[in-house]
Amino acid sequence: MKVLVLGGTRFIGLAAVRALVAAGHEVICFHRGQTAAELPDGVIEVLGDRARLGEHRDELAALGPDAALDMIAMTVADSRPVAEVLATLVPRVAVASSCDVYRSFGVLHGKPEDGEPFVEPAQEDGPLRVSRFPYRGLEGKLPPEKQAFLRDYDKLLVEAAYREVERLEVATLRLPMVYGPGDPQARTASYLRRQLLGRDVLLAESLAGWRGCRGYVDDAGAALALVATHPDATGGTFAVAEPSAQTELEWVRAIGAACGWQGEVVVVPDEELPEELRAGFDARQDLTLVSPRIRALGFAEGLPRAEAIARTVAWQREALGDPNPEEAERLTLEQAVLSKRG
Ligand SMILES: NC(=O)c1ccc[n+]([C@@H]2O[C@H](COP(=O)([O-])OP(=O)(O)OC[C@H]3O[C@@H](n4cnc5c(N)ncnc54)[C@H](OP(=O)(O)O)[C@@H]3O)[C@@H](O)[C@H]2O)c1
Fold this sequence. Notes:
Structural class: alpha/beta
Bound molecules: NADP nicotinamide-adenine-dinucleotide phosphate
CATH class: Alpha Beta
Shape: globular
Helix content: 25-40%
Distance between the termini: 61 Å
CATH superfamily: NAD(P)-binding Rossmann-like Domain
Order of helices and strands: EHEEHEHEHHHEEHEHEHEHEHHH
Strand content: 5-15%
Number of helices: 13
CATH topology: Rossmann fold
Largest sheet: 7 strands, parallel
């Protein structure tokens, strides 16, 4: 097939492009040209802003795509008009979505509409968030350049906006917390920094036992490629995550094992910690995800988890840099607690 990918030159999108090419598909990447990537041979780049996708319609139509993959649909405003244009170009589209559509995500961020903590793992069709705009109210914790944009971010509304468009079969893939080389969110960086300094790692007790769904970037890419092209994926709702979600304690130890860390994880009751060192969310609610539907299409992880984490850590240690002021302050606070406990 020939797949038009919106985005595709950064982290997960690039992994999806590589997976598509490896599976024998042709790829057209539509992006602004601000993020350079080593794309596989044969990938066609069309440069432009998705906000003006319509202006590129004829150029894209001439390339004859059979399907599309939207990697960067974040708000209704940036999805609906794009979906309308795609409906004139291709019969089917896959949309990169997130595990934050599930009710568990609202619960862990204390959204009253989503109710109390519950235990069942989310299924592809598991209970969805009742609350909307999951990052509203959390803007203060986000970097300034992301605050305005994330105010209107909601993948639930994005999925719905896409599905309202006629003449387009829409499949969605809800991704877990994705880690890997090139991760712009640097998900291993904070623990790795402590471990490379030879420090013990302090964890609030509630956080130590919390389970979060994760996935390696190449697996996320492979799953997206399947959802975009598999005949049985058309119009479906999918999720993907590692088969068992690690606790935060296991995640810290796995990062430590990958960098040769000899330290300890020091688990401290939440009430003995200053506010800044507590979980920061309701860690009674796990964020787990099971993904039988994509596995039925033939998806399986490409690497053992320890190897996926080792590759991520090898990249992250080179890309670590200095801690930002907030992180530096946290390191000092942690050290004070650890020294007091002897
Ligand atoms: N990371 C996670 O843990 C996680 C978890 C759940 C879901 N997700 C989802 O995964 C997706 C992110 O994947 P990614 O960052 O790896 O995406 P990506 O496709 O690899 O990178 C972003 C792409 O979008 C292009 N782009 C940005 N703004 C554009 C615009 N206005 N017009 C045209 N192109 C534009 C960038 O290229 P240019 O800069 O050249 O334009 C780049 O190609 C998102 O949908 C996110 O919600 C991620």
